Fold this sequence. Notes:
By secondary structure, this protein is mainly α.
Amino acid sequence: MNTATAVEILAARSTTTTSVGIIGYIIIGGIAGWLASKFMGTDKQMGIVLNVVVGVIGAFLGGFLLSFAFDTASGGWFFTFLTALLGSVILLFIVKKVRS
């Protein structure tokens, strides 16, 4: 299997599209980013804007990773929140390891 075939398989298999929408991602991302920063102990360094950014990027990261095992597109609000929370924790973990 060459690299182009692997990329095509990953792109076709993974999706981060849900029915939540952009405003939903911002709201859910803000809450998930804030909770993840509390959980990871980085809340003192982060403001509300960075919490939202971490939550939205975490939602995409978690959606990408979980799409290999679950149907993330039809999960709804609660599953999107859990996905965003998991992705945010993973993102903050990676950032903490890189900064240390």
